[in-house]
Amino acid sequence: MAGNFWQSSHYLQWVLDKQDLMKERQKDLKFLTEEEYWKLQIFFANVIQALGEHLKLRQQVIATATVYFKRFYARYSLKSIDPVLMAPTCVFLASKVEEFGVVSNTRLISAATSVFKPLKYPYLIDFLLLSHSYLGTPVLH
């Protein structure tokens, strides 16, 4: 960890000003309004909360998953990876990072299927593991 906040990786990678955020968000605002964009962010924060409650995770794990989700989409367009896939992936990674214990693949898919019931959750564990490796790139460091 850097002794100086201004030289830390947190400051250098994650303290984004409004101009940086808008630059990344422009790709999404081509097909969404600002209001729709924020509604999607809120919707998926609620999805992550529901997944965490279904899996009986601590609130700290759920909060970490939400931060990972928001940080990922602060840097990438919503079109880059389906948020329906990314939300459970963030829960999976957060459970590992927060040392809750790894959520089993079958429990995670079962929870996602339950939470996304009206959508008939389209992904298998292979997709979650693949996106987990993508999420674990320097984007979140």
UniProtKB/TrEMBL annotation:
Keywords: Cyclin
Domain of life of the native organism: Eukaryota
Coiled coil ranges: none
InterPro entries: Cyclin-like_dom, Cyclin-like_sf, Cyclin/Ssn8, Cyclin_N
Entry GO MF terms: cyclin-dependent protein serine/threonine kinase regulator activity
Domain Cyclin-like positions: 46-133
Alphabetical GO biological process terms: regulation of transcription by RNA polymerase II
Residues annotated as signal peptide: none
Keyword Oxidoreductase among UniProt keywords: no
CDD domains noted in UniProt: CYCLIN_CCNC_rpt1
Family named by the database record: Belongs to the cyclin family.
Name the record gives this protein: Cyclin C
